[in-house]
């Protein structure tokens, strides 16, 4: 198949318009255009035309649609062995596919027939062909970016050139077998050959495990149920056994017998206890009689001792009486001496009191006198104060008059001074020794002193005459003011009743002195009689009343108080000594009286004791027979005691084992109680087991267990069958892989035959190994060193990718199915040297191929040569 | 004349977990249904008494509704007397079961829970029944020993009823062994036995009734019971099998030769179509088959399987016949052919472990399947 033209309408950037590549020739064709020119769009559109159904909705198709949407149209003219055809498809909207014969002009096929026609053209049976694509930057050597049919095209290329390859490798049949095997295996196992989660084998194993777990649970339930049933059977059996009438009777009989034996033993024990008590009583009686005898004998001895004691008491009594008498005498003497001393002391005390009273009376008289003086001074002060006050009142000028006089006087003086100032001055300056010759107005003149002439001044010069100096008329109003002032002063003085200012001021001063005197007298009075004169007088009256008695006492001859004090102290000392002596004598007298009382008491006690001892013993004639009787009684009691003890020993020796009888009875009671308790316990246990059994048995675990066992066995069988299937599939996969690997050398030989000369154009002695799955180079060996293709440089990888496609294309071409090779910016990484060699390789291969090179490297590809393609507008019709 | 129906091993309540769920329920239901079929058979043959020789129930503690429903069915067959004997699956030790049964048993059901003689009357008038109930799952002794000395009225026909293996004949290892000549020794007119699920005559007076509804492939018989007629104490009993089963557990072998048409051979080996839906068939495929024949057989089996209640083919006995022409169908040469021949050689290599050989053979068969329908 050869491509002759490609046309697009409304594809991606060609939104709403058409573009065409016309005149695609055999050999090398180049479309060199800048980036974004639409080269890859052409590439993708061509791919869609040949490989996508027009009804498709996949991503590849949607990516062709521009933003505005609408139908995408792709058209190609192709030349095949059958002629020249036009293939046209509209995608995504108004979908259709159409193949028309360009020579005849008729429609060859449309719809599904057209799709089939295209498929047949690309790779139908007997005519393996296809398109060989190398994507922009397709350094991956297949895989991503490569359309799925490309892989088959490569193999078909192999098959086409080497007829035996299909037979050798199994070809597509082998692929199908491997794919089906892998699918079947993949459903069962993971890549690591473990059961795949969610797969039937894993599910069967999981179910078997789950059922095994459930089975174990149920088995445990069944086991538990069986155990409960066994326990219940045993409990029921045991209950029946215990509840059996004979067994119950036997327990009752044993209990009755044990109780009878116990009663017998208890009776014997009671008798022994009574004998024991009797023995104790006899022992007690013996002891009591022995004690009574001893007591009697002791009483006799006691009576004798009491009689002796009575004699002693009599003697002591006499001695005490004598001592008391002597002490009485001593006490009388001491009492006499005391009376005397007391009288003396009283006299001395009286003297002392008299002396003290006299002293006090004198002090009171002194105080009275002082008070009287004070009163007198006080009364004087009061009189003084009254007099001074009266005088002050009399002297005191009326209120404010002094000030007014002073003011009028001051005004007058000022006027006068002013008048004097204005008056002429006269200075008399006698010559020394003539001073006395001059008098002024009758008075000696002061030499050098200026004399004012306010009034006519008469200067007498002794011996010489008189000089009178008179003032002038003065100022016109001066006389009136002065006269007014003088009148004012005269009025004020008249009001004051004083002749002049000095007299007035002297009277005012005298009034102030009187007032001051009155103040001093009042203060003195206050000091002397702070509470007033009446109080002072009352106080004095009281003192006078008190002093009346003292005045009387004072009349007696007053003794010397100190002497009286000394005499009194001496009398007290004498009295104290007398008292001590009397006290001592009385103490001694009391001591003897007490001794007398003690002796009397003892005598009485002794007498009473002696009488009591006698009374207790009774008449003396009966005392011996009484002793004999007591001795006989004691001997009898000792004998009775021995007999009682013997009886007790006998009973004790014959006693049955009470503890054993009690133990036997306890055991019988316990056995009966145990039986009752066990019956009750078994009843409870059986009820509990009934409940447990009913609950568990109701769920029928045995049936569930049997069913679960069956299901588990089935699941295990299913798992085993699936495992066998997985084993078989694994074995098959391995066999197919091994067989294919064995054939691979032959398989790739035709490709290598094509590839080697191309490789030689780029590098020396390089060998290529192919990946069997991708049918693409996987390893390159240069100079004996093998390198994985992935580790080669990007440039080398893309060159290898292009050369491999060219090799396959040649194979396809040899098979008659010439396929266009489309290189979409596939030499992006190649350097200038290599790209030249690649151009050579392209032309070498292009002999019987059609190669379309799409590139953005316009300058670099100018040297490629070949047919140049250009975008042309296309109407889309 | 005494006449009764002898049956055993009803295993009521038995579950079939290994079977598909729907079938499992049907099989369990079919066991309960056997009671009605037994009643029908008894009536049809004039037997007024049904003797069940043990294993009435499958478990010691069956679901309560199983007990209740079984007794209700027996009660509904009021014209019949049912005598139930504890077997090794439902021994006396299953006191929960038997106390419930005692409480709920209708008047026409006799529980033979003690070895005391029973006179059921009815069509067994004049005969005395000597029961030997199983005390435990494994009694460890011959439970029929007491028959020898058991007193019965003069002239009465003595009929033994027991459950267990005769000598080494038991269903389960360790079962108590019943003396094979017990009928003769104890002067029994008939010894009705249970335990063996296949109907079996031990001697003229000693029979295993077999199960009325089979539950496994072992015996290859349909479900059956026995109608027994006894003319007198010394007269030999008349014993007639009657079919009572609902499902048929069949085992068939399909023997192939390399040249045989497997589809035709299969058609000949299978039961007639109307019986198939009640048949649980285990088909053992044996012999040799070429790859195409094997593929054809698989297709035929797949086609016929839905006819059956359960269809379990087993290919472990089938070998692949070596034929180069068959491998040609995979490929005449090349890698596929190499792989096929490797697998064939491995399948035929007697020195290899069985599992490897089986895997290789299955792999070859799969490969053939892939290639047979490939272009």
From TrEMBL, chain A:
Domain (YhaN AAA): residue spans on this chain: 1-50
GO molecular function, one term: exonuclease activity
Region annotation Disordered: where it falls in the sequence: 549-569
Coiled-coil region list: 201-228, 705-739
Chain segments annotated as transmembrane: none
InterPro entries in alphabetical order: P-loop_NTPase, YhaN_AAA
Pfam families to which the protein is assigned, alphabetical: AAA_27 (PF13514)
Domain of life according to the entry: Bacteria
Alphabetically ordered keywords of this record: Coiled coil, Exonuclease, Hydrolase, Nuclease
PANTHER family, A to Z: DOUBLE-STRAND BREAK REPAIR RAD50 ATPASE, PUTATIVE-RELATED
Protein name, as recorded: DNA repair exonuclease SbcCD ATPase subunit
From TrEMBL, chain B:
Positions of the UniProt region annotated as Disordered: 124-153
Domain Calcineurin-like phosphoesterase span(s) in chain numbering: 3-94
Pfam family name, one: Metallophos
GO terms assigned for molecular function: exonuclease activity
Hydrolase is among the record's keywords: yes
Membrane spanning residue stretches: none
InterPro entries: Calcineurin-like_PHP, DNA_Repair-Maintenance_Comp, Metallo-depent_PP-like, Mre11_N, UCP033093_metalloPase
The entry's keywords: Exonuclease, Hydrolase, Nuclease
Name of the featured protein: DNA repair exonuclease SbcCD nuclease subunit
Native organism: Rubrimonas cliftonensis
Phylogenetic classification of the source organism: Bacteria, Pseudomonadati, Pseudomonadota, Alphaproteobacteria, Rhodobacterales
């Amino acid at each position: 198949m050869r491509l002759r033209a490609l046309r697009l309408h409304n594809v991606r950037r060609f939104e709403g318009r058409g573009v065409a590549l016309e005149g695609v020739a055999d050999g090398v064709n180049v479309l060199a255009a800048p980036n974004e020119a639409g080269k890859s769009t052409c590439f993708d559109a061509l791919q869609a035309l040949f490989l996508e159904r027009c009804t498709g909705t996949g991503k590849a198709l949607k990516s062709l649609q521009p933003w505005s949407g609408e139908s995408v149209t792709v058209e190609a003219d192709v030349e095949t062995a059958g002629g020249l055809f036009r293939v046209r498809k509209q995608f995504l909207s108004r979908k259709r596919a159409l193949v028309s014969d360009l020579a005849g002009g008729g429609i060859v096929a449309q719809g599904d027939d057209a799709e089939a026609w295209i498929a047949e053209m690309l790779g139908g049976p007997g005519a393996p062909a296809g398109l060989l694509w190398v994507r922009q930057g397709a350094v991956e050597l297949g895989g991503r970016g490569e359309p799925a049919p490309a892989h088959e095209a490569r193999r078909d290329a192999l098959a086409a050139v080497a007829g035996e390859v299909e037979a050798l490798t199994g070809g597509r049949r082998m692929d199908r077998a491997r794919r089906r095997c892998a699918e079947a295996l993949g459903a069962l196992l993971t890549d690591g050959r473990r059961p795949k989660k969610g797969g039937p084998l894993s599910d069967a194993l999981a179910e078997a495990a789950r059922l095994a777990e459930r089975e174990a649970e149920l088995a445990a339930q069944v086991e538990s149920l069986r155990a409960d049933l066994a326990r219940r059977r045993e409990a029921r059996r045991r209950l029946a056994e215990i509840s059996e009438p004979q067994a119950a009777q036997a327990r009752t009989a044993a209990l009755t017998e044990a109780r009878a034996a116990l009663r017998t033993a208890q009776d014997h024990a009671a008798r022994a206890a009574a004998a024991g008590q009797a023995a104790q009583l006899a022992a007690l009686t013996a002891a009591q009689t022995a004690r009574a005898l001893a007591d009697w004998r002791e009483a006799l001895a006691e009576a004798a001792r009491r009689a002796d004691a009575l004699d002693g008491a009599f003697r002591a009594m006499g001695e005490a009486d004598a001592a008391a008498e002597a002490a009485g005498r001593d006490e009388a003497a001491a009492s006499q001496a005391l009376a005397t001393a007391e009288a003396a002391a009283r006299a001395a005390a009286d003297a002392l009191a008299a002396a003290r009273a006299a002293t006090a009376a004198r002090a009171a008289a002194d105080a009275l006198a002082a008070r009287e003086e004070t009163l007198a001074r006080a009364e004087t002060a009061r009189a003084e104060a009254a007099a001074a006050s009266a005088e002050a009142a009399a002297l005191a000028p009326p209120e404010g008059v002094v000030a007014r006089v002073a003011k009028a006087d001051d005004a007058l003086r000022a006027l006068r001074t002013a008048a004097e100032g204005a008056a002429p001055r006269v200075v008399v300056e006698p010559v020394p020794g003539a001073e006395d010759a001059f008098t002024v107005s009758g008075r000696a003149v002061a030499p050098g002193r200026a004399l004012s002439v306010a009034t006519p001044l008469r200067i007498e010069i002794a011996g010489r005459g008189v000089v009178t100096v008179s003032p002038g008329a003065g100022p016109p109003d001066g006389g009136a003011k002065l006269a007014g002032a003088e009148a004012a002063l005269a009025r004020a003085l008249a009001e004051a009743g004083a002749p002049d200012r000095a007299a007035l001021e002297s009277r005012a001063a005298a009034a102030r002195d009187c007032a001051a005197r009155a103040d001093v007298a009042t203060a003195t009075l206050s000091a002397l009689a702070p509470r007033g004169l009446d109080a002072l007088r009352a106080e004095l009256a009281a003192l006078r009343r008190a002093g009346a008695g003292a005045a009387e006492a004072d009349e007696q001859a007053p003794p010397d108080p100190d002497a009286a004090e000394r005499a009194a102290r001496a009398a007290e000392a004498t009295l104290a000594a007398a008292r001590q002596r009397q006290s001592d004598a009385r103490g001694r007298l009391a001591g003897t009286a007490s001794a007398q009382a003690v002796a009397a008491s003892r005598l009485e006690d002794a007498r009473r004791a002696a009488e009591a001892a006698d009374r207790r013993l009774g008449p003396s004639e009966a005392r011996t027979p009484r002793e004999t009787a007591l001795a006989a009684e004691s001997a009898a009691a000792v004998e009775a005691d021995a007999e009682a003890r013997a009886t007790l020993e006998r009973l004790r020796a014959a006693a049955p084992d009470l503890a054993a009888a009690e133990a036997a009875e306890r055991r019988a009671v316990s056995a009966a109680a145990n039986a009752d308790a066990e019956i009750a316990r078994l009843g409870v246990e059986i009820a509990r087991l009934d409940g447990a059994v009913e609950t568990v048995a109701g769920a029928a675990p045995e049936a569930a267990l049997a069913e679960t066992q069956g299901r588990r066995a089935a699941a295990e069988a299913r798992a085993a069958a699936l495992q066998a299937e997985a084993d078989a599939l694994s074995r098959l996969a391995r066999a197919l892989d091994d067989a294919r690997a064995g054939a691979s050398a032959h398989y790739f030989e035709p490709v290598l035959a094509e590839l080697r000369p191309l490789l030689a154009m780029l590098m020396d002695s390089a060998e290529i190994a192919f990946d069997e799955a991708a049918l693409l180079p996987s390893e390159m060996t240069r100079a004996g060193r093998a390198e994985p293709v992935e580790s080669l440089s990007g440039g080398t990888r893309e060159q290898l990718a292009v050369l491999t496609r060219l090799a396959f294309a040649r194979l396809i071409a040899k098979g008659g199915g010439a396929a266009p090779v489309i290189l979409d910016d596939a030499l992006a990484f190649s350097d200038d040297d290599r790209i030249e060699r690649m151009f050579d390789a392209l032309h070498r291969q292009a002999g019987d191929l059609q190669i379309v090179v799409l590139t953005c490297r316009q300058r670099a590809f100018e040297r490629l040569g070949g047919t140049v393609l250009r975008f042309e507008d296309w109407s889309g019709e | 004349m005494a006449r009764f129906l002898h049956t055993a091993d009803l295993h009521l309540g038995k579950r079939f977990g290994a079977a598909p769920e729907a079938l499992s329920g049907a099989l369990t239901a079919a066991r309960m249904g056997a009671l009605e079929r037994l009643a029908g058979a008894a009536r049809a043959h004039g037997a007024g008494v049904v003797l069940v020789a043990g294993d009435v129930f499958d478990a010691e503690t069956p679901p309560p509704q199983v007990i209740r429903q079984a007794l209700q069915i027996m009660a509904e067959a009021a014209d019949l007397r049912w005598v139930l004997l504890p077997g090794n699956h439902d021994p006396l030790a299953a006191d929960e079961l038997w106390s419930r049964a005692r409480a709920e048993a209708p008047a026409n059901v006799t529980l033979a829970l003690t070895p005391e003689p029973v006179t059921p009357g009815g069509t067994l008038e004049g005969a005395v029944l000597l029961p030997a109930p199983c005390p435990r799952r494994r009694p460890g002794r011959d439970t029929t020993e007491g028959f020898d000395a058991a007193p019965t009225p003069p002239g009465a026909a003595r009929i033994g009823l027991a459950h267990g293996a005769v000598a080494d004949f038991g269903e389960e290892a360790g079962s108590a062994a019943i003396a094979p000549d017990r009928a003769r020794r104890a002067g029994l007119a008939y010894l009705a036995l249970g335990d063996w699920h296949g109907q079996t005559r031990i001697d003229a007076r000693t029979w295993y009734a077999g199960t009325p509804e089979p539950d496994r492939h072992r015996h290859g018989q349909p479900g059956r019971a026995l109608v027994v007629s006894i003319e007198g104490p010394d007269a030999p009993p008349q014993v007639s099998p009657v079919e009572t089963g609902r499902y048929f557990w069949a085992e068939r072998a399909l023997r192939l030769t390399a040249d045989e048409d497997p589809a035709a051979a299969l058609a000949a080996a299978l039961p007639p179509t109307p019986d198939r839906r009640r048949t649980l068939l285990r088909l053992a495929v044996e012999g040799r088959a070429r790859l195409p024949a094997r593929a054809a057989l698989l297709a035929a089996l797949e086609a016929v399987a839905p006819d059956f209640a359960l269809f379990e083919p087993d290919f472990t006995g089938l070998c692949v016949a070596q034929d180069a022409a068959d491998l040609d169908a995979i490929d005449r040469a090349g890698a596929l052919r190499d792989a096929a021949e490797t697998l064939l050689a491995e399948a035929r290599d007697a020195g290899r472990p069985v599992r490897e050989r089986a895997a290789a053979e299955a792999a070859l068969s799969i490969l053939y399947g892939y290639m047979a329908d490939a272009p």
